[in-house]
From TrEMBL:
<dbReference type="GO" id="GO:0016423">
    <property type="term" value="F:tRNA (guanine) methyltransferase activity"/>
</dbReference>
<dbReference type="GO" id="GO:0043527">
    <property type="term" value="C:tRNA methyltransferase complex"/>
</dbReference>
<keyword id="KW-0489">Methyltransferase</keyword>
<comment type="similarity">
    <text>Belongs to the methyltransferase superfamily.</text>
</comment>
<feature type="region of interest" description="Disordered">
    <location>
        <begin position="468"/>
        <end position="492"/>
    </location>
</feature>
<dbReference type="GO" id="GO:0005737">
    <property type="term" value="C:cytoplasm"/>
</dbReference>
<dbReference type="InterPro" id="IPR029063">
    <property type="entry name" value="SAM-dependent_MTases_sf"/>
</dbReference>
<protein>
    <recommendedName>
        <fullName>THUMP domain-containing protein</fullName>
    </recommendedName>
</protein>
<dbReference type="GO" id="GO:0030488">
    <property type="term" value="P:tRNA methylation"/>
</dbReference>
<feature type="region of interest" description="Disordered">
    <location>
        <begin position="130"/>
        <end position="206"/>
    </location>
</feature>
<keyword id="KW-0819">tRNA processing</keyword>
<feature type="compositionally biased region" description="Basic and acidic residues">
    <location>
        <begin position="473"/>
        <end position="492"/>
    </location>
</feature>
<feature type="domain" description="THUMP">
    <location>
        <begin position="148"/>
        <end position="266"/>
    </location>
</feature>
<dbReference type="InterPro" id="IPR004114">
    <property type="entry name" value="THUMP_dom"/>
</dbReference>
<dbReference type="GO" id="GO:0003723">
    <property type="term" value="F:RNA binding"/>
</dbReference>
<keyword id="KW-0808">Transferase</keyword>
<keyword id="KW-0694">RNA-binding</keyword>
């Protein structure tokens, strides 16, 4: 056990320089939490924060980030957010930090800054959060282990567009993401065993790294320079050990022109991978899937389909979050269908192991979207991620596929109330196909997103009250016979 030392700021610190929770009492104070979200979905994430945490989120100039204040006794609620990729607690924010022109002077200022920052509250939140994560891990039966692929199954592979850089990106985070239910009212005060474990850990020297994320063309230094020099000063100040891969604390240095935010990560692995264990070539981020679903406001008893489900990111996310709707996941590719089934089974097993009822309101089926085995006017909501024609399908094929899809989706979707939220990067082809739908769909709005570096659109459509099959456009057959199921080529 470590002996607390009183410091000049009046706080007690362990030998490893972590603020001490005196007498096991929970200190309640307000902190600012930052979250990275899929770009374009900042407003959706802010809305979720308002709903689940009752806090007003501020959207940063730096696209893809939101900030909100929370009292530390409500800290557990941040892990209920589904639209955030990474979470961090703010140490200090500067709206208009004046970087000196020369690299030497700018770096010297950053080094000095490290010892002047108000670290104590942020480190206390980091400590509370570790305790929370341990409890969540225990409740689910120990460390969440990644499933080994069964014979004949694909090994899980990382989702598209993920980076794993050591000092220049913030794409790092969270350990135990998927927490479907039962955590309301969860506090951060732990058991005595937990406290002992934390104290034991507190006596070991902490390992840390600094991750710098920089944007702006007026800086005389790179993100590597800033991470290295600021990191050196942090090391000196706290006497922590630098470790780029096995770190306890990740200090974040976000520089966006003259806006500087220093934070401490609260998640180790991005939450966007929370529910998927069997990845495919174009697996969608769970956070983006959640944002798309939120755009159509699912209601109790809604029938929601993802007719091109791939690995099932959208229906998996939806059936966990909106348990009173019913989801159908379909794809014409047998490998995609079996990945979806595996992903659903994995979540159900985890729920069962955690003591909850295993069922999710979702079914999986192999089908061709251009000929859905469903009744006309039977679906409330369609949410899907269409082949962009880059990694999946081809641009040429999209000219036939998109009009057929839109027409068949209009047939099954309820006139007057039905909605569709469709993601594609092939905007030209999509707009053309939509304009030829004979007024069956009305575009409500478009959210522009970044998907693995590609500029894509999420198109929110409303099914008009027009009857299907009454205008020349909707009865016109596709230009070519539709492709048979199973004919997709998957690129790895
Ligand atoms: C961009 S991927 C969807 C990725 C998915 N959101 C995920 O998270 O894995 C598009 C999917 O459309 C499927 N697809 C293409 N043409 C189809 C058709 N005519 N009917 C059904 N699915 C089709 C492909 O097999 C592919 O899995």
């Amino acid at each position: 056990m470590s002996t607390p030392n009183e410091s000049s700021d009046g706080n007690l610190y362990t030998e490893a320089n972590i603020p001490v929770n005196v007498g096991g009492k929970l200190s309640v104070f307000t902190v600012t939490i930052g979250a990275t979200v899929p770009t374009g979905f900042e407003h959706t994430a802010a809305e979720e924060v308002g709903e689940k945490i009752e806090a007003d989120a501020r959207i940063s100039k730096d696209r893809g980030r939101i900030y909100f204040q929370i009292s530390t006794d409500k800290l557990h609620l941040v892990h209920h957010l589904k639209s955030v990729d990474n979470l961090f607690v703010i140490v200090k924010e500067f709206d208009n930090y004046q970087f000196k022109d020369s690299k030497e002077e700018a770096m010297s200022d950053l080094q000095q800054l490290a010892s002047q920052l108000p670290w104590a509250n942020a480190l206390e939140v980091w400590r509370m959060n570790n305790s929370l994560k341990k409890r969540r891990g225990r409740r689910r039966g120990g460390n969440a282990t990644k499933p080994k692929p069964a014979k004949g199954e694909d090994a899980p592979v990382p989702a598209m567009g993920e980076g794993d850089a050591v000092v220049t990106t913030t794409e790092k985070v969270q350990q135990d993401p998927d927490a479907p239910q039962g955590e309301e009212g969860e506090g951060v005060r732990g058991s005595s065993q937990e406290e002992e474990e934390l104290e034991d850990e507190a006596s070991k020297p902490l390992k840390f790294r600094v991750t710098c994320n920089r944007a702006g063309d007026k800086h005389s230094f790179t993100s590597n320079d800033a991470a290295r020099d600021f990191g050196g000063a942090v090391q000196e100040f706290f006497q922590w050990k630098a470790d780029m891969t096995k770190f306890d604390v990740e200090v974040l240095l976000n520089i966006h022109n003259s806006e500087v935010v220093i934070g401490i990560a609260l998640t180790e692995e991005s939450l966007h991978r929370r529910n998927i264990t069997h990845f495919g070539p174009t697996t969608l981020r769970s956070t983006l899937a959640y944002g798309m679903l939120r755009l159509c406001k699912p209601q109790v008893s809604d029938v929601i389909i993802d007719p091109m489900c791939g690995t099932g990111a959208i229906p998996v996310e939806g059936s966990i979050e909106w348990q009173h709707s019913f989801f159908i996941a379909g794809d014409n590719n047998d490998m995609a269908v079996s990945r979806t089934v595996n992903n659903i089974n994995h979540i159900q097993k985890k729920k069962q192991d955690g003591g909850s009822a295993p069922g999710l309101p979702v079914d999986t089926v192999q089908w061709d979207l251009c000929h859905l085995p469903m009744r006309t006017n039977s679906v409330d909501i369609i949410v899907t991620d269409m082949p962009f024609g880059k990694r999946m399908g081809s641009r040429k094929k999209n000219w036939d596929l998109y009009p057929s899809c839109l027409r068949e989706m209009a047939r099954v979707c309820r006139p007057g109330t039905g909605k569709a939220v469709l993601l594609t990067q092939d905007k030209k082809c999509f707009s053309k196909a939509l304009s030829r739908m004979g007024g069956l769909w009305r575009k409500v709005h478009t959210v522009w997103v970044n998907v693995g570096g590609l500029h894509a659109g999420v198109f929110v459509l409303k099914r008009t009250a027009s009857d299907y099959g009454t205008t020349p456009e909707d009865v016109r057959p596709p230009r070519e016979a539709p492709e048979a199921p199973n004919n997709n080529k998957e690129e790895q």
